[in-house]
Every structure is written in C-alpha cells, then in structure tokens.
Amino acid sequence: MEPIAIVGIDCRFPGAPDTGAYWDLLMRGADGVGEVPRQRWDAKEFYSQAGEEGHTNTTEGGFIADPDAFDNEFFTISPREAAAMDPQQRLLLQSAWRAVEDAGIPPRSLAGTPTGVFVGIMGNEWAQLHLTDYANVTAQVGSGNGYCMTANRISYHLDLKGPSLAVDTACSSSLVAAHLAVNALLSEECDHALVGGVNVALTPALSIFYTQAGLSAPDGRCKPFSAEADGIGRGEGVGVVVLRRLRDAIADGQRVYAVIRGIAVNQDGRSNGLTAPNRWAQQDVLAAAYRRAGVEPSDVAFTEAHGTGTSLGDMMEIKALGHHHAGRAGKPMALGSVKGNLGHTEGAAGIAGLIKVALSLHHRVVPASRFAAKESKRLNLRDHGLRLLKAPLRLPAGPAVAGLSSFGMGGTNAHAVLESAPPEAARPRPEDDAPVGGIGAAVFTLTAPNTDALRRNLLAQADAAAARRVPLGPLARSSNRVKAGHRHRFAAAVGDTGELVARLREAAADPGLLARLAGSPDGRPRVAFLFTGQGSQYPRMTAALYEQSPLYRHFLDEADAALLPHTGRSVRDLVLAGDEAVHSTRWTQPALFAAGYALGRTLEELGVHPGMLLGHSVGEFAAAVLARALPLEGAARLVAARGALMQELPAGGGMLAVRAAREDLEERIAPEPLVGVAAVNGPTSTVLSGDLEALERIGAEIEAQGLSTRRLQVSHAFHSPLMRPMLARFAAIATEVGGGVPEIPVYSTVRGRVLDGEAMDAPYWVEHIDATVLFGDAAAALLDEGPTHLVEIGPQPVLSGMVRRLGHPAPGTGPAHVLPVRGPESAGRDLAEALAELYRGGVEPDWDAAYTPAERVAHPLPPYAFSTEHRYWARNPVRGPGTVDVPAAEPAAAALAPHREAESATASVLTLDLPAGPADPVAEAVLGAVRLVGGYTDADVVLHDRLYEDLGFDSVMIMELKNRLEARLAGIGTLTVQDLLPRLSSVGDLITFLRELGAAVPVPAGFGDAEENRTLMEEERTA
C-alpha cells in the first residue's frame, strides 16, 4: 500500500482541551474522569449501586469541559441555527479548522478542492432530545441533527468537494472512517482527507445500557488488561486528523507526524452473540493490516489496543494479538490503551487511539498505560508475546512501527499499522534550487473575523512564542501562510521573537496600536508605483538594504550587470563604497535607475503588482522596464548614454524652484531663449531651468514680487534648451534600442497623462530629455483613477510630499503612502514595514519571496483560538425518576445571541435614512423579522449587516423571512424569493426595496407603535 501521511492533528478530550494537553495527560499517566456534569443529567437520580432496571451503576465518566461553547460568529452561523445544532457538529467544525491549520494549510485555501471528510460517530442523543419534541421541530433542528450532517457541515463551511460521509460502526467508527479515507486517497478520489471522530454524552441511556448488559465499571473508569478491570467507563471527545499521500506531503514540505502503512476492516460475522467479540475475526484483521503494510508482526514495536477493560473483551483481544506475537517471548511487544486515561469515547475511540499513536511516533516515546501496574495474570500476557507499558517506552533510532486496534460492538473490526515519519519528512529541508528570497526582516501576520477575535488570537500566539525559543523566519512565514483568509488583518515587521512577543501583547492591550497594525480592506487594492528622479541620490543609498536583503541584492546585481557594458565601472560598487561621484550626472542617473529597478522588481517578486506607474524624469526608465515597454538591457543602455552625454555638456546651467504657477512664469521667461520650464510639480510648484545668468535675473525679479525661490544643486540645466546639443547623438542610440507600448498603464510626465496605446520608443525618449516634466498633471490623472496605495520607489521619499501638496483628493480621503526606503538608514525593516502596510490594505504578497530558502520550512503555530463567549445547550433537560427538571447550563438561543463588535452598534444609520422622532415602523418590522429568523437580539442586527456574509442566512431562512415579511407588512403583495434575492445585500437595502413596493405596517397588528412592535416580536419569539 502506498503510505499515507498524518500531517495535521487537533483534539479535545477529558482533561485535555487541545493536542498539547492531550499528550501531556498521556505522558503524566493522568485521567480526565470525574463526576457527570449536571449540565448533562442528574447522575444521582439515575444511580443505583445494584444497577436496578432504568439505572446506571456509576456517577462518573470522562467528560470534556464546555461542550456548549461555540464560536458561531466565526462560521457565520446564526444563533438560532447554532442552538439547534448537535454539539457534535459544533465540536467537529472547530476541530476540523484547527487540524487543517496544524497541517500548515490555510483552511480557506481548500475551498473548491476534492478534499474528503470522513467522520466516525456512534451517538446522536441530541436528535433524540430535539426531534421528538415535535412542536419545536424547525428547519434548523432538522439540519442540525443526523449523522451525515457531522461530515457534510464541515464540507459545506469549508467548501470542500470531495467525499463527505459519516460512519457508524459503534466503537470502531472513527478508525473505519480512517480506512475509508485512506482508500479514497489511494484511489485519488481526494488529495486531502479530514478524518474525525466525535462523542458527546447527553443522556444516561448508554450508561444504563452498559449497566444492564453487565459492562459498566462502577467507578466509571476503564482499566485495560488490569487485574482491577471491571467494565467500561464512558468518555467523550473530538479529534480530527488531516491525511495526505506521503509523496504529496513531502513534496509540499509538510510536517509528517506519522505514516499509515496499512489498514484493514472486517466483521465478526455470526459469533456467540451480536455484541460479543470474535477472537478469530480480530486476528484476521490484524493479519490483513500487516499484509497490506508489508510488515511482519515482529516489526511492530507497540500496539495501541482497543482495551475496554471488560473481562471478555480484553481476553479475546489478547488471544488475537497472541496468535501473531506469541513467538516474541524474549522481546514482547508493548501494549497499552488510552481508554484508561479517557474512558471509552465510543465513536471517537478510534481517533483517540490514532492520535495517541501518531504523537508517540512523532515524539519517539510511548506513554505508559494507565492501570498497567496491576497486570491481569489471567491474561498470560508474556505467553502471548506481550507486555503492558508500565513506564514510557523510548523508541530506538530508525523506523518504528506501531499497531492500532478498534473493534465495534456490532462486530466491525479495524486495525491500522503506522510507522514513524521517514527521514526526508521528519525535518523538511529547503530545496537546493529554491529561488532567491529574503528581505532582511520578518513580517508576522494574523487574521480574524473581528477585532475581538484578533485580540484573542494575538495573545494566544504571543504566549506560544514566549514559551519556547523558535526561529523567527519559519515562524513568521508559517503565520503568513496559515493564518490567512479573514477580513481583519494584523501585520507587524519584527526583528526577533522577543520583539514579536512584545508587539503582539502590546497590540492586544492597546486599541490604538492594534488599529495601526490591523486593517480591514474593502475591495481590491489598486497599487501605484512612483519612481523618484534626479536629486534623491546620496552616497551609499540603499546600501543597508543591499546588505540585509538577498532579494534586493539579487535585483541590484542584475541591474548593475546590465549597466556595466555601458558605464565601464560597477555602479553598484560606486554606490556601496559611498563615492561622492554619485552626484555626478553620468553616475547619478544609472545609479537611480539601478536602485529604482531593483526596488520595483523586489516588490513585484514579493507579490506587490502595480496597476499604475509614474516616474519623475529619469525615474521613468525603471517604470518603463516594469511596464515591459523596455527590456532591462535596453533601458540600461539608454540611461547610461543619457547620463554620460549630459555630463559632457558644458557647465553654466542651473535650475530654480519657484513657488508660483506655470502660467504666472511663462510670460516672464518668454524673452529668455536659454531658459525653459523644467518641471511643473503642482499648481504652485514650478521649476525653471537654463542659463545661470538668466535664472539669476528672473529669480531677482520674482523675489521682488514676494514669491519664494530656491536654487537647486545640480550640475546641468536639465529639461531646458541647453540639453539640445546632445539630442542627435542620444537619438541614434535610442533608435537602436527602440521601445514598445506599456503593458501596465504609465502616467507619463512627458504627456501629463496616461499613455493611451502610445509607444515609449526613440522619439519619446528623445523628447523626454528637454520636455517639461509634467508631474503635477500626471499625478493628478493617476489619482483620478483611485489608487489605494502609492508606493514611492527610490532612495528617499520625495514624491509623496509633492503628491500630498496637490490637495487631490481631499486630505484624509486619498491613498496610503507607502515608503519601502525612507532614507540613508533604511534597511530590511523598512521594506518589511511597507510589505506589512500593503498586506493590511488588502495586497496578497508572495510570502515565500520574503524569506531565504533556509527559512521556508513549516513551523507549527497554535491553532485558532475560538471564542467561548456564546453558549448553546439543550432546551429540554433530561429527567430522572421522580425528579424535577434539571436546569440547562444556559437558556435558549434567543437570549444567547452573540456579541457583535461595538462599532456595529453605531453604524445602523449608514445605509438608510430613518425619520427623526419615533422609530420607523417598516424598518422596525423588517429588523424584527430578521432578528427573529436568525435568533438575534435587538442590538445584534444593524442596517449595514449583510444577510448572508454577516448574519448567516441561507435559502431556508430566506424563505422563512419572506413569509414573515408578508405577514408583517401590508402593500407588498406576495413576494417571491426571486424578488428578494437581488435586494438582500444588506438589511438596509431590503428595507429600501420594501418601501419602494409601498410597504406599510398593518394597523390592526399594532406595528405602528415601536413599543407594541417590539412586544409582538417578543411574543412571537417566545412562541
């Protein structure tokens, strides 16, 4: 059989709320058994020491804490639906999400994939309690119950397209589910498989059955293979594992806990009783699993037994194992059973054992078996080649093989053979040919549906990072990959794990800081790159970034190699050496081009793809390369020639910045043939260029009129008539290079607008030399297109301030200004901060490029921390003989609607104009109907809420809403679902639509008065 890898695990068992706690419980040899919680049933009322009919002989068992807690908001499930759902569905939903995260997979990335869901489940007591309460059966109660829904709901909420089914073979259910999942993977029905098992004990029914059948332990504890074994103790819990074909897991660099080598299922057939075990069938299923795994019994180091602690069950299991292992008397196989720690978790028993074996192989130690100290002599374990684990077993180096048995009460048996992960999967290594990457700092990211959830998960991640030393790169990369997909995005650039822990805790404690480090993007981001021009250079510009960022280094080296044939000297080396020659035009222009190209390409490699480009003067060359209007080699040749030819021009030119409009200066410079307008950077920001003597005269006249001027420190009069002597020589080179139409819109500072099908060819680049730089016009045209982010590409910020001074759009409403390089001290940290800001704004980076190949390995992160604020439990308590009702832990769902974010409460007037004074009766009627159908309280629904995305409505709820609206509102006639569907984007839109139909509140119903309306809604809700 092709090996199948276990790549993700999540579980929740008695005394163990998560996987780490489960392993700790096993290693301590502890148990999670205690008294039956009053939330389930009053155990004392059902207790009889003699085990009388209708009673149980124990008041104890293994119960998980808070099974009523469910984060329905996370899954966009309304309170009404959550209250109707079997808690087993709720537990599986949350555990499945966490298991997928543990596999290093962002759960939302599985949407639409052929991922299978296979659930083992034995009990459906919630349905017994609710589907027999006929007066209260609703559509939600129907979909909230049933074995199939435990699997189907996971597939629905994660949008999984593979097989989805629930299995009931009693105690072996979840291992049989694993068998089906393995076969589905081998037949390529699916590429990922989620295997789960769940059990929640809501009634004493099975406890009574075990007692009446003589199977129940009086102390509620299973004691596998012990001299003290006296029956079953009930347990409960949930577990989910993620399975993949081993070759796929290795190819994707996933952590592999263990490998399933072989698995088999069979049936007892006609034994000495329907519920009696069959030794011969058990030994046959062992043989089939060994054969399928290609192992000999002597290869198996330990077996996790079914081990119920019943005299007959334990005896039959030992004899079946002994058939294969009796020859190992000198080196007996280790044996244990997790039921001694948890009780018999029934439908979840197989998954509990599977997770224990996988963790044992992963940690290379097998926990001691509880109650093994008093081994049953009657079982003659040594004669059968077996020994109970009385102390943890350290597994030797090399492959380790383990067995796992799970036998159903009705005779369906399963056995699996597992092996430790192979060396190539135990510690994933980076690929030798992995592309270059790394920006010199890490960006830790986290997403959540709302700010409360974000804050809760920040603290969970901080606690985990503080608990042990972890490598920052793999940790941050895993956060980028796994903790994605929700609306609220947190991102912070950090230098080490100590700083990360501090930033996470500070953000969780400080709403202001959290607001700065988090974003909730609306719509797709539109990114523009602005490339700075001459004047922004300085010695050692971007040197620190070059030293820290392998990715930037790669692209600067690439630009330098393209320039070298035309410059005769390495521009990169000149810049890094701090040579003042960088201010010489022949070096300035190639150096700025190299830095602009390298920074722009670095951002592109990081997944920041511009939709608009603008370059100020010489900055346009790098923009043209990114727009694919020029090849790198061609642009390098042009820039090198441009700088060299300009350097050869005679001195005597200068440039003068004037705080005045172009129109106010043109008449003044008209008589000066050697002076021109070099740049128009804004409505009152103009640069003149030309002969120095002429500029001095003009400057004096302007200052006399009270206008401010400033001489620019330049070597030549760029963009002036003094450039004309070089044009012919440059044109010859430009003609050879050519140029094409940009593939990304370029807002040309030659044209002052976007280039519309125009080539950036030789004539364009020749004109570019002495034409006025129309930055203000080009930037205004770009802003009119509504970019969300302006990323300034250059060695220091210059253009961002110029754009802000344009005053377009109004302050506070424009795009975010992002600065990957902020000046001489900038290094990887600033680039990482820029990437974090872009991510918060909705950009989806290619995170792998942010890390070196050595950092691109999976690192485990704590799973999502779900809210426990919302509680849903059975409406009808279980009654004992002669008792009064046992109160449920919490009231029904109507009083349990989830908390919504505080900002929602203030947003109810955003989408609808309500009249002043008394409440709008139509709005009150609609809001009341929506709240009633969803089970929300008054404060929980506001007008901007979306019915599907925010309130969890589905087609059944829409139909009920339609009926209630027809009953509440006059003047709308008979609605159809087709009428409603286009108008359900928000509650406010629905109200507006109904008003357009002429909706009115029927006077006899009393809806004209808001208080009466609320009273009626409350009566309807209670009913």
Automatic annotation (TrEMBL):
Domain Carrier: 920-998
Record key words, sorted: Antibiotic biosynthesis, Phosphopantetheine, Phosphoprotein, Transferase
Domain named Ketosynthase family 3 (KS3): residues: 1-420
Top-level taxon in the UniProt lineage: Bacteria
SMART domains with a match to the protein in the record: PKS_AT, PKS_KS, PKS_PP
Gene3D superfamilies named in the record: 3.30.70.3290, 3.40.47.10, ACP-like, Malonyl-Coenzyme A Acyl Carrier Protein, domain 2
UniProt-listed Pfam families: Acyl_transf_1, KAsynt_C_assoc, ketoacyl-synt, Ketoacyl-synt_C, PP-binding
Alphabetized InterPro entries for the sequence: Ac_transferase_dom_sf, ACP-like_sf, Acyl_transferase_dom, Acyl_Trfase/lysoPLipase, Ketoacyl_synth_C, Ketoacyl_synth_N, Malonyl_transacylase_ACP-bd, PKS_assoc
Transmembrane segments: none
Keyword Glycosyltransferase: no
Keyword Protein transport: no
Designated name of the protein: Type I polyketide synthase
